[in-house]
Amino acid sequence: MEAILTQNPKLYDLAILGASGFTGKYVVREALKFLNTHSSPLKTIALAGRNPDKITQSLKWATQSTTTPSLSISIIKADVSDPDSLINLCSKSKLVLNCVGPFRLYGEPVVSACVETGCDYLDICGEPEFMEKMEAFYHEKAVENGSLVISACGFDSIPAEMGYMFNIKQWGSLAAPNKIDAYLNLESKKNIVGNIGTFESAVLGVANSGKLQELRKSRPSRARLVIPGPRPSKGATIEHQSHIELYGVKLPSADSTVVRRTLVTLTENPEGLPGVNESEEDAEKRKKFWAAMKPAHFGVKIASKSPLGLIRFIMAGLFIGLFGKISFGRRLLLKFPSVFTLGWFRKEGPTEEEVNSASFTMWFVGHGYSDVSLASAATKTDTEIITRVMGPEIGYVTTPIVLLQCALVLLSHRNNLPKGGVYPPGIVFGATDLQERLQQNGITFDLVSKSAF
Length: 453
Description:
It contains 18 helices and 14 strands. The chain is α/β, with parallel strands linked by helices and 453 residues long. The chain has 2 domains: 14-150, NAD(P)-binding Rossmann-like Domain (Rossmann fold, 3-Layer(aba) Sandwich), CATH 3.40.50.720; 158-394 and 435-452. Strands 3-2-1-4-5-6-13 form a 7-stranded parallel sheet, with helices on both faces. α6 links the parallel β5 and β6 (148-150). Residues 15-150 form the Saccharopine dehydrogenase NADP binding domain.
């Protein structure tokens, strides 16, 4: 299938940067499902990257599984090391989806170009330092230029954000959640193989862990969350949740950081963020949604049906934590990822069969009080609410689904979203129809149980 080069500089509803990468080609395949379909705002796409020939190969791969009859697609050469190429891409696009990581190495030039040209930006980043650095450096200019910059629009961290909010919806108006723990269980009939970009980001995150703390200390203090009840104890290193029959160990993912940023932004803006040109009806809907949201302590654990199932995750974490702090160790980790993660990550990525056989379940176990008045006097919580989010393989199936649905929400409802700024995804998409869209595309949200002690 040949790409059709469009000439109008404003015809790109969507540009996918890194379209030939491991994740990028899956994002292309997902985007084609919604190109020129009924009621879709997606009419034109630009596929961008360093090598147009590789992008063409990705397009051919992606079109093998789509029945889209006619495509309006441009292939554009754009390189993160060439600012002019990025300005050219962003000036012609309403929205850029950035799939080029690790983002601490390659993300800032893309954000800068989007902010400069007033183009909206979404990415699949799971790197807290990058996200918070972009907020610190670009938020004010993004507001001024009308560029909406939102990171973590893949598996990191939409299931966590939307899953947290779905759990909160189950608490009544008088109830007060205190703690919500998410337990991520990955399953596959074949091998579970992670995204190599995620591994590289984790290694670099350990190497630069001090920079995140320095950045936070250098910034003005944000609002403090007011959560009813005492702060929960840390608990055991390996924790057993009998109600969901899983063992869990803390997962140092971006999810807890991203959820907290959303809650802090909500604390500072109790009615949410007003849309650039929203109607009175939409404004009331937004205010009603956010009035029902409540802050709680939030953490994420990787989970397994047996303690032995956690061994691979623990060993990988130990190797990354120890070797990631020294340059020689990082070189070893990045050269032999399969060895140090017991096959969890490998340079060549998963096979299509491995991708199709994998799935995830993210359990949200909430504890709190049936009435907020009990929080100050009670020593123990009296209510437990368990919800879950389920979906296909996280890196190459769920991430493209989530990213595209975020993009379609943004393109369809731009007037109801903030004019511009750098924000976590939850505060932007929480009051939209994103959850419903995800459910229509294979990611389910369920109430499992609601118990009083």
